[in-house]
Amino acid sequence: MTDDREKLAAVLDEAMLNASPVPQLTERAPLDVASAYEVQECLVRRRLDRGERMAGVKLGFTSKAKMRQMGVDDLIWGRLTDAMRRPDGDVVAVADFVHPRIEPEVAFLLDRTLDGLVGTADAARAVAAVAPAYEIIDSRYRDFRFSLADVVADNSSSAAFGVGPWRAATGLDLAGDLANVGMVLEVDGRIAEVGSSAAILGHPLRSVVSAARLAGAAGLTLEAGSVILAGAATAAVPLEPGRHIAVRTGRLGDVEVTTEGGRT
Ligand code: OOG
Ligand code: MG
Q1: How many angstroms separate the alpha carbon of residue 189 from the centre of ligand 1?
Q2: pTM of structure
Q3: For residue range 56-72, what is the model confidence (pLDDT) as tens digits?
Q4: What are the DSSP calls for the chain, one per residue?
Q5: Whose atoms come closest to the Cα of 61: which ligand?
């Protein structure tokens, strides 16, 4: 498997760099989910070898809306690097991606290390701040179609993310204040998707618990300073050039991005 997973990681890495889709890995040979996470690790290792740094983790399929949209109903996770992070209000070139979509998320910033099995109270204590966020997902597979193992190997479709202004946890009651935050995904001032933070595993803090458990099982400790993307509250929408997109949450604030054609 060692050589194989390096080869599979290279296929996905090149698909990303060329913004050009590839067939699903499972069309060539069977791949189980545990091996797919090893491919993901190799894939992200290639990026770290190019100078990127770990920035945190993302959870996927934490909401019914996402499971329904993609036909997958297992929780997945992926790795975030600093190169994937875009400043709030950034301009993103759509052609840098294969077929990008955008989705509204909640981001957590840790100020304590989280290792393995923790409860929601421990998770809440490790959270320094919370912010509205978006994730740009971009399956490197043709037609944005995949099996569970395929999407896991592909770093759970993660491509880029943006985080709005952080709200310090000290000024919040995380359990209460994050229980039901309205999340609107707006495209050119029109509402494209509406959801609630409650759609994320019932409460987005549960994503922090799951992130610690799943990453911990893979030998990855969530260090202080890590960002955790809790998973989308709504289905994702295609990212087209020349659009202005905002995630609006009311109390938790907003985060915005503009798109353009061409490649950077
Ligand atoms: C997989 C990633 C799912 C989420 O927030 O649920 C995800 C995909 O939809 O391609 O990021
Ligand atoms: Mg997501």
Answers
A1: 24
A2: 0.97
A3: 999 999 999 999 999 99
A4: -HHHHHHHHHHHHHHHHHT--B--GGGTS---HHHHHHHHHHHHHHHHHTT--EEEEEEES-SHHHHHHHT--S-EEEEEEGGGEE-TTEEEEGGGSSS-EEEEEEEEEESS-B-S---HHHHHHHEEEEEEEEEEE--SBGGG---HHHHHHTGGGEEEEEE---EEGGGS-HHHHTTT-EEEEEETTEEEEEEEGGGTTTSTHHHHHHHHHHHHHTT--B-TT-EEE---SS--EE--TT-EEEEE-GGG-EEEEEEESS--
A5: 1
66 CB under 6 A from ligand 1? Answer: yes
Ligand 2 center from residue 59 Cα (angstroms): 7
CA-70 nearest atom, ligand 1: 9
**Domains, the chain, ranges and CATH?**
2-260 (3.90.850.10)
Question: Could you report the per-residue pLDDT of 171-223, keeping only the tens digit for each?
Answer: 999 999 999 999 999 999 999 999 999 999 999 999 999 999 999 999 999 99
Query: How much distance in Å is there from the Cα of 66 to the middle of ligand 1?
Result: 7
> Which ligand is nearest the CA of 199, by number?
1
